Amino acid sequence: GGCNSGAAAEERSRGSIASIEAERRREQERLLLRENQLQEEVVEGRKKLEAQAARIKNLEMDSRAKRDKLKVLLQKSDSDDQLVDALRTELSKLRESLSGGGGMGRGG
């Protein structure tokens, strides 16, 4: 049975080659699926990054606008403080002139 055992060995070799090829195809399919998944994840990640960048830009613009408004408010506050000081000075001068000015206005 020398010929028969040679044919059987050849058949086994063909079978193992076929199973190796089938395994290789399955592995390639798995890798292709994984590659597609990763590409989708990259696309999603880029979309998220773009959305975050837009949000950051909007927040920075909003922050800048609020800072500018705050500067204006502080300048107005300084002007108001100066005006109040000037009015107080004027009021105290009026009081001095009324109290020590020799009875101008109402008699006392």
Automatic annotation (TrEMBL):
Residues 1-21 are annotated as: Disordered. This is Uncharacterized protein. It comes from Haptolina ericina. The lineage of its organism: Eukaryota, Haptista, Haptophyta, Prymnesiophyceae, Prymnesiales.
